[in-house]
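Q: Give me the 3D complex with oxa(dethia)-CoA.
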Amino acid sequence: MKSVKIIGTGSYAPSKIVTNSDLSKIVDTNDEWISSRTGIRERRITTGEDTSVLSTKAALEAIKNANIDPLDIDLIVVGTASPDKFIPSTACLVQAEIGAENATCFDISAACTGFIYALNIGTQFIKTGQCKTALVIGAEVLSKIVDWSDRSTCVLFGDGAGAAILQSSHDENGILSIYTGSDGRNAAEFLGCSAVPVRNPFIKSAEKQESLVTMNGKDIFRFGTKIIPKCIEEVFKEQDCTIEDIKYIVPHQANMRIIDSAAKRLEIDSDKFYMNLDRYGNTSAASIPLALNEMARNGLLHRGDKIILVGFGGGLTFGAALIEWMID
Ligand code: UT7
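A: Here is the predicted complex, encoded as structure tokens.
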């Protein structure tokens, strides 16, 4: 089995900032409620750029930072719950924009855990020798599927994208372990968004149905507080390191109170979790790579640092990756 390492990251968020007080003009809410219940102060909302555009901009930064030619990329996987289209995939749209003609491209649907799943797929393709260089992306334009009349959900989400380039390596093993899981029982009641209903000339037409996000916040909250510690425990199995060796945990940015509760269960300081939720809100599959690239940009990561990425979300889906940072 080959070793795999991250050789570059990138991210992009639309320039339009929507503050909590901006939202109070749309729904019955206020800055105090949103910031104290979630930790969110503002989020980025697209004024036209769709998921493939955000993905492409994140990918181009990752390619530049990795110092590779797009033609070297032989796999593109995009984790998204808000693609531009059913067909073609977001990954194919990105491929065309960046000129990665040699890549096999597809999207995966794992909601907020989309980046961890994409990272796992890229890692497995490289480990087994199917490819050498993979571009993995988490990207969302949730603003197009959010119910802007529902104050319990519309205040939470934001748009954005993050990307990483993975490459096979003879000597250095950056991706130390990955754990993923799913639980489809009653999942749509927790967090859902319908696609198109069944309709064809041979049945009575179904009622028109809008594709909007619905969520039972309390259930997802409880799930998040339990599954984050479980995923973190799982990535340490068969590894000779412990949570004390970890410099940062980069969690899915859903709610500061979820992180505080998970930190308490793990008996660690909340400061070990890198957060940028206050500025971006919950960007679903984009949240982990967006945070990771911000850390890299700000010089917080050094060669040899051990970090954990951990996510959970609709599906239900969950997962974590234990990574040794290999970039100087
Ligand atoms: O990415 C993964 C998916 N999503 C998540 O991880 C979200 C997880 N869940 C959460 O973050 C929290 O459950 C929420 C932030 C969504 C809600 O927080 P909460 O503390 O569970 O509030 P709640 O739903 O119990 O609502 C408390 C009150 C209610 O009013 P009453 O019934 O007590 O009078 C709500 O109607 O707050 C009200 N409320 C609001 N008030 C002002 C709900 N949303 C708002 C709002 N502004 N935006």
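A quick observation: The mean pLDDT is 95.
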